Every structure is written in C-alpha cells, then in structure tokens.
What does this fold into?
Amino acid sequence: MNTRNDIIAGLCFVIPLAEIRSTPSVQFHNIPGIVEGLSAVDRVEHQAGAQSPSIAEDDCARPWYMHPNQEDNLIVFEGKRVVDLYNIAHAKVETFEVYKNKLLHNGEIIHEGAHIFGWPTDVFHRVQSPDGSLSMNFARHFDGFDIKSNFNIYDLDEASGEYRVLRAGHLDQPKVEIGE
It folds into this structure.
C-alpha cells in the first residue's frame, strides 16, 4: 500500500509508487486511491531553460504560484524539475530536484524509485527545468476553488512572508470552460 510521507510537515510530501509488475524491458507502477478526490490532471511540458511561472511585465525576477484551494501531486516522466517551495508557517525556501526515479533535497537523495512529489494548499511554488521536462500534475480541488484565480502569479517577500498578485491567472488562460 502506498503511503503519503511528509518530507517537511505542512510543506511537502512524497508518495512512493508501488511496483506491480516488472519484466526485463517494462515496469508497471500503481497509485492506489489516486482517483478518489482527483479533480484534474494537467500535462505540463517545459522547454529547456523554462521557468514557471514567468512574467514579462514586472521586475520580479522569480515569481511564484500559490493555490489556496488546490493540492498538487507531481509526477515527472522526463527530465528534471527544480522546485522551490515556501509557506508562511515554515518561513524559508526549500529546493527539491524531482526526477522520474529519485527526489533530492539540498543535493541529497531523499527518495529513490518512482514517486509523486506533492504539496498542500497555500504553498508558494516555482519550477525551473534546466534541460526541459515532461510531467503530470494530479490536482485535488477543495471548497473555494476558482480556475480564474488558481494560477495567479505572485511576488513574495521571503523574509516577511508578505506577497502581492503580479498577474491574475485567468489572463493567461484560453476563454473556454474547464471542468471542476
């Protein structure tokens, strides 16, 4: 059975994927219970050198996302994602390198094997992809979720925890209805 293991309580967690079949050229992994409570599956492809979020019209060098009503559950399939996380309670930035078969924190391997790397609501996060990457995010939406504000881009003062919206998320979305 897969269990959700806190890496830093209230900031992030890892869910190991269960290997259910392995042959010389094919491995199968399973995530029991992932569909329960699942609200959306987002395929995210980054080109080499990508930073997310990014914003052209402000002087904030490294902006942030923060979802007040969405939990993120990330699986990397190709490449590497460098993920910075911050929340007000923890009050410092933590950096993780996420690969398809390992997870590093401060340059040290903290998990080996296929996994989900996730964070709860109200966690500021930003991602770099030095060489390009492909991932899927299995999102869980909670009461109050609003697609128009879910992808707001923020400027965050890491010392004080104060933040402001740099760009409303809906401005970068197509004008179509997305299911909730």
Observations:
- The chain has one helix and 17 strands.
- The helical segments are 147-150.
- The mean pLDDT is 92.
